[in-house]
Amino acid sequence: MAASPLVAADFNHDGHLDLVIVGSNSTNTTVYVLPGNGTGSFGAVQPVFTTSTAGSVWGSAVHNMVIGDFDGDANADIALTAGSSTPTVNFNATAHSWGQLRKMELWVDGKKLAEQFHAWEGNAYFNYASTLASGTHKGTIYAADVDNSLKRFDFNFTVGAPSCSAPSSYGVHICAPANGSTTSYNPVLVSATSKISGTLARMEVWVDGAKKYTETNSTSLAASLNLNAGSHQFTVYAVNTSGTAWKSTVTATVP
Predict the structure, then answer these.
(1) pTM of the model
(2) At a CB cut-off of 8 Å and minimum separation 6, what does 169 contact?
(3) Which is one Pfam family of this protein (predicted)?
(4) Residue 57 burial (CB < 10 Å; 0-12/13-18/19+)?
């Protein structure tokens, strides 16, 4: 969770200072009040506002919070300012050809972002950074020979915090691909979020009984998988350090 600076005021009129903090997780942002008891400790944390749209995450970018009676009702109000940032994505690739490579190109969502001519004989490399909007994107890297023959690699990637919400009870919520759907393209984006007890050990993506991806740092994951055309079974596991496992399974068709 990302947290903002602290501010203090007596919000419940008990004569003791209370603390306000803004916290963000991977899906939304919440304003919390910690009621002070006048002895140096605080009561149970009380959420007072949560962003209503999944993916509205701005707690880590809160610059200032100010306390005042802005509406003249003799109660303390909270005002805050938050900045936004556009993530930078780094693209790195190498290519080899039996012919003579001339250049490499990066295309994202059908638009060419860059071309580079770091090529010698049958080898080439590509290194580029760009700011992109949050969300899921389709990328393609081309390697071009001097005769303009092309080799390509397609991939999906997600920028920013995943917008996949956690289930209401312990378990795994697979947001993509949707059960029974036909994916828009290949590679296939697998996106899931889990709610578990204890401490996370790992999340895993299995396709047709074979493990394809492991995440050990977060209870949310997004993986881009190259799969053969046809119907596939996707299972996502979440396992805590005690060995308790939760899973969810969907079936989707890859074009």
Answers:
(1) 0.49
(2) 195
(3) Big_7
(4) buried
